[in-house]
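Hi R.,

Here's the chain you asked about this morning:
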Amino acid sequence: MKRSRTLGLLVALTTLPVLSAALIDAPPVSAAPDCSGGRIPPLTLASTGDTLEYGIFDSLGRFFYSDQSTSRLMRIDRFGEPPKPLAPIPAPGAMVFAQDGSIIIGTGDSLQNGTTGDLNPMSGLMRVNPDTGAAQRYVTGLGMANGLALAPHGTIYATNDAGFDIDRVQGGTVTHPWARVYSTNGVAVSPDHRYVYVSQTFAPAAIQRISIAQPSQVRPYAVAQGADIFAGLDDMTIDGQGNLYVAANGAGQVWKVDTSGAICVLAGGLRFPSAVNFGVGLNSENLYVVGFDGNISELANVLP
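And the predicted structure, written out as tokens:
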């Protein structure tokens, strides 16, 4: 897919009623306030030069990221060292860690798959050994496998930002669709396991809340206002208290959404941030951002 995700986002956003040129060429004026304590300056830890879709740490502190430019899953053992190609993954998307420590990663995360994915689901998941890179097919028949979230008992939810269908993988079986919300990207499960939250990309920026017990029940949870409707929300994560953290790709920001649904800007000055995740161990209070500009950045002391 390489740069098509970035271009696709800009093209889709320009189909909305009004688009300020500042969204693309300069830092936008955000309607949301800064988070308490002000914005956190991003610290760049690595610059890969590639298009990064997702990034996550394992329990050993190794950082894994989806490289759309090379169609590979990459691993950084320690920042400052060069990334290591781990496994070839066609159009790699988000990833989660299975109970056995293996990586479950989306494959087929492309606009081509997504636009036809509701009617002709061609994407899937692969299981990768994080040490050796040995990979095998886990499931097929997903609409896109853009965002992934892990729920109890190994259940996985997968999103499609170019369609309507949200899929569920349970016991190796795909439910397509499990729920329907237009252009979903980031996905997270609430700490009480009652809800699935999804962010919307090619639509006025919002986060929708889906009842796990009754997935036809979809409610707006956080809705952007003013210029922020053009933010182009991407992937997101959740903390133990239920606060959401979302990459606002088009706005070049990271947002925090508290448990009341209130939005604030946690960081700005980023170039097309695509995903956020917390660190591990001594860095577990820090948030880490990957972007389409190839950078991996750190936001320090996000959690109290």
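The two ends are 38 Å apart (CA to CA).

Let me know if you need anything else.
M.
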